Amino acid sequence: MKTNLKTDILKKLYFERELSCNEMSAFFKKSIPVISKAVNELIADGLVAEGGLAPSSGGRRPVMYSIKPDEMYILTVAMDQLSTRIGIVDMQNNYVSEIKMIELHLLNNNDSASQLATIINNYIDNSGIERARILAAGIGMPGFINVNEGVNYTHLPTEGISLVDFLQKHTGLTIYIDNDSSLIALSELRFGIAKAKKNVMVINLGWGIGLGMIVDGTLFRGHNGFAGEFSHIPLSEDGGLCTCGKQGCLEAEASMLVVAEKAIAGIKNGRVSSLQQSLNDKESKLAGDALMDAANKGDQYAIELLTEAGFKIGKALAILIHIMNPESIVLSGRGARVGKILSAPIQQALIKYSIPRLAVNTELLISELGFDGELIGAAVLVMENLNMKSKIIQAAVA
Amino acid sequence: MKTNLKTDILKKLYFERELSCNEMSAFFKKSIPVISKAVNELIADGLVAEGGLAPSSGGRRPVMYSIKPDEMYILTVAMDQLSTRIGIVDMQNNYVSEIKMIELHLLNNNDSASQLATIINNYIDNSGIERARILAAGIGMPGFINVNEGVNYTHLPTEGISLVDFLQKHTGLTIYIDNDSSLIALSELRFGIAKAKKNVMVINLGWGIGLGMIVDGTLFRGHNGFAGEFSHIPLSEDGGLCTCGKQGCLEAEASMLVVAEKAIAGIKNGRVSSLQQSLNDKESKLAGDALMDAANKGDQYAIELLTEAGFKIGKALAILIHIMNPESIVLSGRGARVGKILSAPIQQALIKYSIPRLAVNTELLISELGFDGELIGAAVLVMENLNMKSKIIQAAVA
DNA sequence: AAGACTTTTTTAAAAAATTTAAAAAGTATT
DNA sequence: AATACTTTTTAAATTTTTTAAAAAAGTCTT
Fold first, then answer.
1. How far apart are CA B225 and CA B215, in angstroms?
2. What is the enclosing helix (H) or strand (E) of A177?
């Protein structure tokens, strides 16, 4: 049996939870005997289990198959510049160990890679999960990442060795890394509001403004893996200075971080808002969360600031629509929870800055995964890369 | 024999001119016996011929195969808003009939579709080529085009029937239409400087500024076929009014048409230039060509105007690089012949407006096909769509 | 409640594709 | 010129996949 098909079936079962032979036959465009044989082998291998019977619309009810949840696990890690979340999921995407959030600063931290390795090792040791049963670790992180070479050019420096090799050496796990926005897009594609869509732009609203692109039903990474560097497109000629050194970048105009900074400055200048207490003395990143809370509770000033940011995001999205003609744009990431507030000014900007015939063909959606997206996406990354190289699969299938 | 493989081989032979069985085996990932059988059938069908022997690096020399040039032909049509070029090519991409250029205005012309049908019919009748030997017609045209439905939403109106159906009815030919910029990209991908590249943005410098996108080695059209609508991205807040009704569009700032208009205005205001004579009383579209000629001959004013436009194009390309991370950007279309002059300010703008790590990974190339691109692309369009539905193929293969 | 109809699954036979091995054709080196 | 080495072609054997038919399981209508 071509083991390739067997791993493909495992992947599909992970994404769809359970399927009948008939459904798999239709999806893989292979005959039922071929699918049936592969599934029976997977059952013999101990990786797949027969489930119940699904309802039928008038005919024999199909036997459903799914992956055995507790044979293998995935370690998922979602990092931002300040903190790292970590969890373990089973093969049916349930967390089998409490998600932990640990402070880990990436900026100017030469030791960050080894700190990350320690975090991973400690977490596994305390989880009660056998290390040998962990299929691989998926890690989402900010920065310019070359997925094939396993390198992050921006953060987590490792001397003379790739980040992936470094982490593999220090944890003994198979490691996959990717950009945070790419993983959020993957999570929306496989388990979120973009499920099964072909052509979707997923916006990661956070401390920057990221973009994960779904093109022809798969994640598009560009020539070097840097596609979707949306944060730093030139948006205005005279805008504020950006961390990247340039002026007028989208990020410097409309990211949640900048909005929070504006809020702090505004309040210092005497602006009346419920934020006066909550923002006092807080760092601007914490302030960002406080601001979004306040906006959702109806605070006028917070809404005003988000509206302003939304309009600028909308202008950038107009450009994106003109270039990509996507079927959907999804507002995701930690900013998704103010998605409703942002929607109105975004739509306004789309009307102003784009050709109607184009804009009407793209729907604006708000993620239901939100802040969990990156963690889910890290698990998806592992399963997308599933192949016969993995030791656990090899051992089971052999 | 799966006829699918046979048409795939025909396509590949058209794009590559000649190939050995071994090369095809490697490309299609099929065994040599399978390929060999298909090729021999194609020879028996009268569509393919054995060529000479290719050189070898120490072993038996391979027999090369190619399509018989004169069994089938492709009608190619390249339209712009003012004029239409038409030609017929054989299966080895040689013109077998002189290319003709005919005035045909698309703007506010309700009769344009039927005029086009007449142009096509007359041209074939005068060409000496049997109509039954024409595989299909490929037509490139400006406008918003839905390739699948065969509709042009902008130009060539046809009441109650799609443009493709209309033309098929009035010419008896199989018709394929596509956006001019898409076809230019196809020509660069198959026969031009982007040959065999995976990830290329082809800029169609003309009366507008079009974009044809090569993503993962194929033409990317977006959800509705409108991807690459580069002309109307919002570039500056206070720019000139665009034909689309908006303000500050790239097209309104940097297209060859706008540059020509600026030149005419400048000269009226007494600006000294060799253009003074050539631009007198000319329409601005003719002026565009005159201006490019003058620039290539060293006229300072023309170069100055192109430099200004180039910088703005460069700013837009910076955005494109940030989003797509392409391996190459190709300057193509009628403006390609001033590509060298535009390159410098484009590079300057890229340095100013993009993140170095991104920009260094994209090379800026100048098309060698230039103005012929759209005609070649129209032929490529036909061959990309080659399938068993075509009567000629059916007759030969049956 | 019985029979007709659907849908899924299994089985066996047929068809297709690929691999393998060997022969043929041609180069290059000694 | 002979031998060793490469590549292509041919033919046979093996493997894989598809097809078709029948069996199994169940739903729905009368």
1. 14
2. strand A175-179
Distances (CA, A) of A33 to A7, A150, A398: 17, 39, 21
Which residues of chain A are within 8 Å of residue B237 when distances are taken between CB atoms? 236-237
Nearest CB to B223; choose among A220, A322, A327? A327
- Can you name the residues that pair with A201 across neighbouring β-strands? A213, A329
In contact, A103 and A82? CB cutoff 8 Å: yes
d(CA A168, CA B90): 57
DSSP state at residue A158: -
What are the residues whose beta carbons fall under 8 Å from the beta carbon of B85, sequence distance 6 or more?
B77, B78, B79, B99, B100, B101, B102, B374, B375
Is the Cβ pair A220, B223 closer than 8 Å?
no
Same domain, A226 and A173: no
pLDDT in tens, chain B (398 residues): 455 788 888 888 899 888 888 888 888 888 787 888 888 888 888 888 887 777 666 667 778 888 998 989 999 999 998 899 999 999 999 999 999 999 999 988 999 999 999 999 999 999 999 999 999 999 999 999 999 899 999 999 998 899 999 999 999 999 999 999 999 999 999 999 999 899 999 999 988 899 999 999 999 999 999 999 988 888 777 777 777 777 878 887 877 877 778 777 777 776 766 666 666 655 656 677 888 888 898 888 889 889 999 999 999 999 999 999 999 999 999 999 999 999 999 999 999 999 988 899 999 999 999 888 999 999 999 999 887 667 666 666 65
Asked if the structure places residue B43 within a domain, the reply is yes
For residue A322, count CB atoms less than 10 angstroms from its CB and return exposed for 0-12, middle for 13-18, buried for 19 or more: buried
B149 vs A: CB within 8 A? no
Determine whether the interchain pair A325/B244 forms a contact, defined as Cβ–Cβ distance below 8 Å: no
CB contacts of B209 in chain A (<8 Å) are none
CA of B22 to C1' of D1 (A): 31
Same domain, B251 and B117: no
Torsion of CA A194, A196, A200, A204, to 10 degrees: 40
Structure tokens at B9: 């081989």
A221 interfaces chain B, CB cutoff of 8 Å: yes
Residues A139, A77: Cα–Cα separation, whole Å: 5
User: Do B178 and B200 reside in the same domain of the chain?
Assistant: no
Q: Are residues B209 and B122 in the same domain?
A: no
Structural domain includes residue B188: no
Nearest to A223 among B199, B315, B320 (CB): B199
What's the gap in Å between the CA of A353 and the closest CA on chain B? 6
Domain of residue A212 covers 193-368
Asked if residue A380 lies in contact with residue A183, where contact means CB atoms within 8 angstroms, the answer is yes
Instruction: Count how many domains chain B has.
Output: 3
DSSP B241: B
Q: What is the DSSP track for A189-241? A: HHHSTTTT-SSEEEEEESSSEEEEEEETTEEE--SSS-TT-GGGSB--TT-PB
C-alpha span between B179 and A200 (Å, rounded): 22
